[in-house]
């Protein structure tokens, strides 16, 4: 079982490696679903991780239909990622009609080589997942991250299983979104997947001793200024163990 952990900061990447992850997807802006991280962050993560590092190439939150300016920014971000010797990138571009933008995706994939390239959950916003599967294969994606067109992968498990069958080894299909201790066994049982993507999220308390009582968090009153998002290595180990046990059971 290959385990990919999505991380949004340096500490989380280090914790993911500690927990035995095989790969991290390095992003910024969890509230936006992940955007391109700073290249200072990429450089530090790459220098301190011995596992694969994939970098999100997404210039903004929102939809996946990008302007020519945003497309140019994506090309420049790929160039920077290559210079920092990451192992792969994660991207996806759609046409307004809900199909994969094959022309621009292929241009980015060709530019990224020899890096591996994953199509992210833009895939879940396509109008026809089976056509999108064939389009992703045609343009050269190595992997698709998908929740099966649903909010969480457990809800889209039947479709994910069918995508894996239709892919027939031509491209990797990796379930993601809501993969945790309570759902991973069902997802593996229904799909037969050999790759999973999750966050193993945790929070740690800020080291700040002085805390302005008038401001709990920048732009909110939730106390988020003093809650640091990270990853729980023990959760990674536990979720992997459940997934691998269930995968073995499905092979019998």
UniProtKB/TrEMBL annotation:
GO terms for molecular function: copper ion binding. Keywords: Cytoplasm. It is found in: Cytoplasm. This is PF03932 family protein CutC. It comes from Chryseolinea serpens. SUPFAM superfamilies: CutC-like. Signal peptide: none annotated. Belongs to the CutC family. The lineage of its organism: Bacteria, Pseudomonadati, Bacteroidota, Cytophagia, Cytophagales. The keyword Cytoplasm applies. One of its GO terms (cellular component) is cytoplasm. The keyword Cytoplasm applies.
């Amino acid at each position: 079982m290959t385990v990919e952990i999505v991380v949004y900061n340096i500490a989380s990447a280090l914790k993911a490696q500690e927990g035995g992850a095989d790969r991290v997807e390095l992003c910024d802006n969890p509230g936006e679903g992940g955007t391109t991280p700073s290249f200072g962050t990429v450089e530090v993560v790459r220098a301190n991780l011995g596992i694969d590092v994939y970098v999100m190439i997404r210039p903004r939150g929102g939809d996946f239909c990008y302007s020519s300016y945003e497309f140019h920014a994506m090309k420049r971000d790929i160039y920077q990622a290559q210079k920092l010797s990451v192992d792969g990138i994660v991207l996806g571009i759609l046409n307004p009609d809900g199909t994969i933008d094959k022309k621009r995706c292929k241009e980015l994939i060709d530019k990224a080589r020899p890096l591996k390239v994953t199509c992210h959950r833009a895939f879940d916003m396509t109008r026809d997942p089976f056509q999108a599967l064939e389009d992703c294969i045609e343009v050269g994606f190595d992997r698709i991250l998908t929740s099966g067109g649903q909010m969480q992968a457990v809800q889209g498990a039947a479709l994910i299983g069918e995508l894996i069958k239709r892919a027939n080894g031509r491209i990797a299909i990796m379930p993601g979104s809501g993969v945790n201790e309570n759902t991973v066994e069902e997802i593996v049982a229904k799909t037969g997947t050999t790759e999973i993507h999750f966050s193993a999220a945790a929070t740690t308390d800020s080291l700040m001793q002085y805390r302005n009582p008038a401001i709990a968090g920048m732009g909110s009153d939730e106390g988020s200024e003093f809650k640091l998002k990270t990853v729980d290595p023990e959760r990674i180990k536990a979720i992997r163990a459940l997934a691998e046990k269930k995968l073995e059971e499905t092979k019998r």
